Recover the amino acids of this structure.
């Protein structure tokens, strides 16, 4: 018997080795197309709007900026964060100071990108006069929060150039893993601000042309790692081209029929994103000020009934921290109808009528109608869906002028705190009215925890608190589907940040 197991193990090892060698030879056998054909085409994308890295909030702008600039860290070919201009990184003994040794880099016009470049950029990001929506990313840096509030000068920010190639960043307290946020587009070293075609960028590509129909990027020969860049051109087209252009990369719009998808060339790729959609009650409004009423809704929500209303890359979830790989049982105890009946009796009501705030969108309409149907299975509950244009809906929600909202959140940086801070008592984004000392304590404990694993575990406990109180009722994780031409290789699809990464992509013969 023992000899049989040894033989089986050896056979398995031989088979694995065979497939590794076979796959490697297969990849080597593929031939690259000539340089003049090293072009990736993306159809059906929104074109970039904001060339200022400190202000760009739309995904299209962030994606283009991430290709024409390179910062301390970047998103790699696998979509994961990796060092960019950072050669080495060390932390001080007390854990509060990061020291980065930089690679030599220059812009398209030959201007060096140095430690001082990052010092000036970080100060502008923190400065309240800049009014960047991303200044909060520097709140953990020494004096960062005070500068964004206008009570200290940008020159006091905990960042300095030790020499041309050495950057030092000092935090308010020891914090492991802080470098991960430095890949976000707001940290890209923009030395001058102007129109798109005037930008003096230092990344792997540069803007060649931009109009109302498309933006074209070409390889930047001044890029420090230009020898590793195979693509010569990236074309981003506003036209979907689903019927006329079956090749290239196609984001699949919501509601696209299967026949159209099958007609496109290449592999169908479902990409999870960091966004999460949920029901958000206003706990200051009756009857949502009753925790058991909120819990009865959370228990009544049948997520399986919503699956047909979602895009193919979107998946239902009971988690708020949708980027967390760890298992967490967020389920509530009890039975929805029994709990709701108890609430009716305690509140001395025969029935309860509530309003669900949604927005004008085909997918949102289907989801809201399904939620209405599912929740009204509770005897004595009536749900009225109110649709508003997205801008009007957001304004009402921010002002707290709602009872229950179909809401969503897509974090700006890769940390669990990005999902949770909006529920802290004094947070300016807290429109839910939720104020809970236990939750606030957990958030403060996490902030003051140096070790990343321990910090994340505390954030999970904070998430669990929100779910137990039914302050947020998760519905689904955002996602996007693409068809990717089979001749394209090494395309990254990050969960957070730019929509895609083409820095080290290649085009092969079919």
């Amino acid at each position: 018997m023992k000899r049989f197991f040894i033989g089986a193990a050896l056979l398995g090892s031989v088979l694995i080795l065979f497939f590794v060698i076979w796959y490697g030879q297969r990849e080597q056998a593929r031939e690259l197309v000539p340089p003049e054909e090293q072009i990736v085409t993306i159809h059906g994308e929104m074109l970039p709007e904001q060339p200022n890295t400190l202000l760009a909030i739309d995904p299209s702008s962030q994606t283009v900026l991430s290709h024409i600039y390179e910062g301390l860290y970047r998103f790699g070919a696998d979509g994961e964060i990796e060092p960019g201009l950072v050669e080495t990184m060390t932390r001080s003994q007390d854990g509060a100071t990061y020291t980065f040794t930089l690679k030599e880099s220059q812009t398209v016009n030959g201007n060096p990108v140095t430690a001082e470049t990052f010092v000036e950029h970080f100060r502008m990001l923190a400065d309240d006069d800049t009014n960047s929506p991303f200044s909060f990313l520097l709140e953990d840096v020494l004096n960062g929060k005070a500068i964004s509030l206008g009570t200290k000068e940008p020159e006091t920010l905990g960042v300095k150039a030790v020499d041309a190639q050495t950057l030092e960043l000092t935090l308010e307290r020891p914090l492991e893993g802080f470098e991960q946020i430095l890949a976000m587009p707001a940290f890209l070293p923009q030395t001058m601000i102007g129109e798109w075609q005037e930008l003096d960028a230092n990344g792997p590509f540069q803007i060649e042309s931009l109009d109302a129909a498309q933006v074209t990027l070409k390889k930047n020969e001044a890029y420090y790692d230009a020898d590793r860049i195979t693509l010569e051109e990236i074309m981003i087209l506003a036209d979907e081209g689903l019927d006329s252009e079956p090749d290239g990369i196609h984001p699949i719009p919501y509601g696209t029929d299967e026949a159209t998808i099958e007609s496109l060339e290449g592999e169908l790729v479902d990409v999870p994103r960091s966004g999460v959609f949920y029901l958000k009650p206003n706990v200051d409004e009756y009857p949502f000020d009753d925790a058991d009423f909120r819990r009865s809704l959370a228990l009544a929500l049948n997520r399986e009934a919503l699956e047909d209303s979602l895009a193919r890359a979107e998946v239902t979830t009971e988690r708020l921290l949708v980027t967390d790989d760890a298992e967490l049982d967020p389920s509530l105890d009890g039975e929805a109808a029994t709990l709701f009946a108890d609430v009716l009796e305690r509140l001395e009501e025969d029935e309860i009528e509530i309003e669900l705030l949604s927005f004008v969108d085909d997918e949102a309409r289907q989801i809201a109608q399904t939620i209405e149907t599912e929740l009204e299975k509770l005897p004595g509950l009536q749900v009225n869906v109110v649709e508003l244009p997205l801008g009007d809906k957001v304004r009402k929600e921010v002002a707290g002028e709602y009872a229950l909202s179909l809401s969503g959140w897509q974090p700006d940086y890769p940390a669990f705190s990005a999902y949770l801070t909006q529920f802290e008592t004094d947070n300016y984004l807290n429109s839910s009215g939720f104020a809970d000392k236990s939750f606030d304590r957990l958030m403060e404990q996490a902030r003051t925890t140096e070790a990343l694993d321990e910090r994340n575990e505390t954030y999970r406990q904070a998430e669990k608190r929100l779910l137990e109180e039914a302050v947020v009722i998760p519905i689904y994780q955002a996602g996007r589907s693409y068809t990717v031409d089979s001749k394209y290789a090494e395309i990254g699809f990050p969960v957070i940040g730019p929509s895609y990464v083409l820095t080290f992509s290649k085009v092969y013969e079919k």
The chain has a mean pLDDT of 92. The longest helix spans residues 2-29. The radius of gyration is 25 Å. The CA atoms of residues 98 and 348 lie 59 Å apart.
